Amino acid sequence: MISKIKKWELSDAKDFAAALSNTKIQDNLRDGLPYPYTEQDGLEYISGMFSADKSETFAFAVTTESKVIGSIGIFRQKNIHRQTAELGYFIAEGYWGKGIMTEAVKQSCKYVFDNSDIIRIYAEPFAYNAASCRVLEKAGFQYEGTLRNNAVKNGKVIDMKMYSLLKTEI
Description:
alpha+beta, Aminopeptidase, 7-stranded mixed sheet, 5 helices, 33% strand, GNAT_dom
């Protein structure tokens, strides 16, 4: 399946909400997302991306066959980490294991490196999320180590893994 990233449009909210209103996906994301995730939630998120500082927030819809099936964002950090950015993403369950997110990660990172002064992009998937770790590895990210007892998700203390990609590596 061919995937591509695109800038958000308000008309993407319905497909975005349908993809994100899934506990299997939300169990692998940071806390704070409503469940069920509604079209109105999607509209609010997309509107927020419109008003975000374009030099600090790089947010894209992940699409295949012109349907939104996921989201990817790269977020600039602060202070001494100002040329570093954190990557986060998800894809609808029906599209898992098809290489779509790997391609979206590659496209997004290339865009950020080509259009900003960012020199390092990192991601911190939950250690148990082998599929997400594999996406990063296939996209060229290097495993840097395990962050032990680094998060509390669904009442459990869990490890996270640290991956990074440098501008000089693409």
